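Q: Could you fold this chain for me?
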Amino acid sequence: MARKILVAVDEGEESAYALSWCLKNLMVTHPNSKDTLVLLYAKPPQAVYIPMDSTGYLFTSDIITTMERYSNHVARSAMDKAQHICKDFHHQVTVEMVVEYGDPRDVICEVAEKLKVDFLVMGSHGYGLIKRAFIGSVSNHCARNVKCPVLVVKKPKSNDVHR
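A: Sure. Below is the predicted structure, expressed as C-alpha cells.
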C-alpha cells in the first residue's frame, strides 16, 4: 500500500536530521514501493513595509525586491539541501517538493490536510520551556492539530554516542 509522508523542512540541522531519520527508518521498503515523500518548506510571508518606518528609514522598491530575492534564495537552499539528502539515500524514493507562504504552524497543518498525508515528520529545535512559551513550538501545534500521526524527531546532542 502506498503511503504519503510529509516532511517539514527548513534551513536548520534539526529538519535535515529528521529527514535523514525518516529515510533510514520509514522509507526502507521493498523496491516496488509506491511511497511518496513530500518535502514542505513554509516560507514566511513577505512583511508589509510602508515607504518610511518610524525611524525615518526609507524602504525603496529595490530594498524590498532584494529582501524577497533573499527569501527565495533561503527557500531554494533549504529545498536543495533536502533534495540532496534524498538523493544520497540508497533506495529509490519518489519525492515531491512543496513551498507555501505563511506561518509554518498553519502551513504544515493545511498542507497535511490538503494532501491527505498518512504521516507527518518534523524536526525538533529543542527549545526550553521559557523560549517555547514565548515563540511557541511548531511541532507541538502540529501534533495537536493535524489529523494524521505526527513524528517529532529530536536531533541527538553531539556528545550523545547512542546514535
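A (continued): The helical segments are 13-25, 61-88, 104-115, 129-135, 138-145.
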